Amino acid sequence: MTTKMTMTKTATPGNRAGRRGWNSVLIGLWAIPAILAVTSPLCWGQLGDVTLRSDHPVYPGEGAFQTAEDCVRFAVESARARNDQEKALAVFDWLLTHQWHLASPQEFRVPGKVPGSGSDDDLIVYDAARGRFSYGYGLCGTVHAWNEPYWRVLGFDVRRRAFPGHVNSEVFHDGAWRMYDTDMAGVVFKRDGTVAGYADIVADLDLLTLEGPPRPRYPFAWPSDFKTMRDGWREVARQGESSWYAMHHGGYEAAPGIVSLRRGESMQRLFDRDAFGGPNRRRFWHVQAGGPSRNWTFANAASGRPEHRGATSNARNEATYANVVFDLRPDPTDPTWLTQPQVAASGVAAFPDGWIARGGGTAVLTLDHTSPYVIAGDPVDDADPIRGRATDGLVVSGVVQPDPAHPNGAAATVHLEVSPDGGQTWTESHRLKGPFRLDLTEAVKGRDQWRVRLSWSGATRIESLRCVTTCQSSQAMPPRLTPGGCRVLFRSRPRAVVSVRPLLADEKETTELFEVASQRSANLQFVGRTAKNRIAYKVNGPRPAQVVFRVPARAERRLVGLSAAARFGVRSPTPKGAKFGLEVSTDQGASWSPLALVEPPETNAFSSGWVAGRVSLEESRPAQAWVKVTLDGGGYPTSLLAFEAYGLVETPPPGPARIVHEWREKDQARHHVVEVPAGSEVFEYEVPTGQVEPSDLHDLAVRIEAL
């Protein structure tokens, strides 16, 4: 088949109004001008917090789904939901079309433990944001933990409930607990048309076969899935509803859904997993031949809404993953490039022929990468990039040349190190000379960050450098186009992420890098996490305890926001009065403000939980913040299992950007380029898609370049 290429270009915002309710979305969500101008080009910098949002009715992209609040707002407004049940069903539908059933994702989270070997609760991803951006799939207990932040946005209490061979969700609204199963895709209605909960179904098993709205009721392997779940409900009824334990606070949201691009860096979303050259070149993070996929899901349904009645449903769709490629190409001739966030330079001078060591001394250049996407790899065996060897997750290349002005230039080398955890450990060491290409995938795969440190002496110059990072993305996150002209909203806000995730393995390292040791309670003992011990700190005795961690802005920047989460251990069932809290201080502990508080009910049977919160620091803009974790086991010993925090740091106003859309309409390849002026925090444009059927429009890629 011969494929034709058509290219168009946009240099100014589109002016069409009203289609698909776009103006109300723009005004309602952001309420800021279309272009915010910056008067001095000298302060233009990277693209902070850059997103795209299309007018696709189901998959508009990360610009609509950065936070749980964004997702719930989108779901409720799209469904025009009015009362609590309609809102709950709207969120239920959104979850079914953006998540699907597969083995739960695992990442490197505990020193000495390797993901992918069985079901290890300490390695499983329970952050809803990480699940939403990188995966979109998991087993029942995981996805129902992810769902908790979404239900809480609606103001509903939520808990997971045990079930024979399964885990459900129960959500409290309209005065009762009601069951929403987004894993097996099941919701049951009472005779009055309201959603039923465990107690209702146990009291009247005929509700399972009651004819009701065309909502999912275990449709995937029809009718066997329905029969299996019906038998499960009969077992629940036989043992009694109270026999099936409740689990609270199993999921949370803390990781910011933020990408920031430095000048000379691009982010390209690839919709086709075979974009790298076919099935043998796929890059992913999952143990499955060819990468994660499933053909029983409501995701990618043509109608965009789950439908099921008897043997008829739209639940047999194909779902897999997408990729995100970050391509960083610094300009070694530009001295201002070294002043950007996520760049630290000491003794480095930029000259027309590259970076050199200032004054002939020693130079150190450190580059950071952080994103909400997990770093993937091309598995050598095409099935297991986790336990087996993988490539092309992080590739660093460039040219190192001798400095002709230096007498020892012939011996020019650069020492390169890489860290997967923000500098807590350094796992690779290389000496670079001449043209080089290093594949560092094994050092950073399964993480969402890396740090590369380059050091050299006056005898050396770095002529060029390039870092290419390939990540896995949920297929539901890239912005999809619509036929007949697609409206797209570009947004860039001046902020980037500083990740603080202490390993909590070594006490000396923890106190040097993260903990404010003077604030630790006398009855709190550092234990240290290892492959055989999950406890970081334990509370000795019945009294509450506290520990405080630092969140720095780094590089003379200021914090404009912060999120944090802590995992605690607790007795099961939970003792009366147990509570776990987070507080934040911007004045080194002189005063504290509440960030989050969790008080598990006495019916809670889960032996650990998460407390998480998010706060704006726009008014105070501190150089550093402290986060206090309070552990109160209700008169019993308790523990801290994990802690993570994310600082949002201010960045320069956005510089110019280029956006490139690639798609296919039947057999014709299309290509559209958009130039975004410097200083644009919001920029609206139209992609000139043709008048074709939605099934004939196929997204290929979309790239954002920070110029």
Largest sheet data: 12 strands, mixed
**DSSP strand count:** 40
Proportion of β residues? Answer: 25-35%
Distance between the termini: 36 Å
**Count of discrete domains:** 3
Derived from helix and strand composition plus strand pairing, the structural class reads mainly beta
> Quick one: CATH class of the largest domain?
Alpha Beta
Q: What's the total helix number?
A: 9
Helix content: 10-25%
Q: Tell me, rounded to a whole number, the average pLDDT.
A: 92
Q: What's the topology here?
A:
Blueprint: E1 4-10, H1 22-29, E2 50-54, H2 68-79, H3 84-98, E3 100-101, H4 128-135, E4 137-138, H5 140-153, E5 157-163, E6 166-173, E7 176-179, H6 198-203, H7 224-239, E8 246-247, E9 265-270, E10 308-309, E11 312-313, E12 321-328, E13 343-346, E14 348-351, E15 354-357, E16 362-370, E17 374-375, E18 378-379, E19 390-391, E20 394-402, E21 414-419, E22 428-432, E23 434-439, H8 441-444, E24 449-457, E25 460-474, E26 486-492, E27 495-500, H9 507-513, E28 524-526, E29 537-539, E30 545-552, E31 559-569, E32 579-585, E33 593-598, E34 608-616, E35 624-632, E36 639-650, E37 657-665, E38 668-676, E39 682-687, E40 697-706
Parallel strand pairs: 1-38, 3-4
Antiparallel strand pairs: 2-26, 5-6, 5-8, 6-7, 9-12, 9-40, 10-11, 12-25, 13-16, 14-15, 15-25, 16-24, 17-25, 18-19, 20-23, 20-25, 21-22, 21-24, 26-39, 27-36, 28-29, 29-36, 30-35, 31-34, 31-36, 32-33, 32-35, 37-38, 37-40
Helix pairs in contact: 2-3, 2-5
Walk me through this protein's architecture:
It comes from Isosphaera pallida (strain ATCC 43644 / DSM 9630 / IS1B). Helix content is 13%, strand content 35%. It is built from nine helices and 40 strands. Strands 1, 9, 12, 14, 15, 17, 20, 23, 25, 37, 38 and 40 form a twelve-stranded mixed β-sheet that branches. Strands 27, 28, 29, 31, 34 and 36 form a six-stranded antiparallel β-sheet that branches. A hairpin with an 8-residue loop joins strand 21 and strand 22 (428-432).
